[in-house]
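FW: tagging you since you asked about this chain on Friday. Here's the raw sequence from the shared folder, copied in full. Didn't touch anything.
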Amino acid sequence: MAKAERGHFTGYWTLPGGYMDHNEHPSIGCVREALEELGVHVELSSEAPVITQRVFNDDGISFVSFTYEASWTGVAEPLEGGGGGKHAAGIAPRRLG
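HL: got it, structure written out here
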């Protein structure tokens, strides 16, 4: 997870995420964003998301979010260009409650 430095979630710990490239499948974007924002290569357990969230509200926030189950067994690579979060950390599932 990374602490967001921009957007609606500034200051909060979030999963890596971002905009998809034109004609990019969301599962490919998930893998790319994990590398760009956290410096890790992940492998998805499925191309189907485990959570799909659609948010459209009167505050002008509108997005569709896909969350995937993934595994990672490597070492984090140094981030180039700062990534999407200044602080990053691995958090064990048992700590999430």
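FW: Helices lie at 26-38.
HL: agreed, and The mean pLDDT is 80.
FW: great, closing this out.
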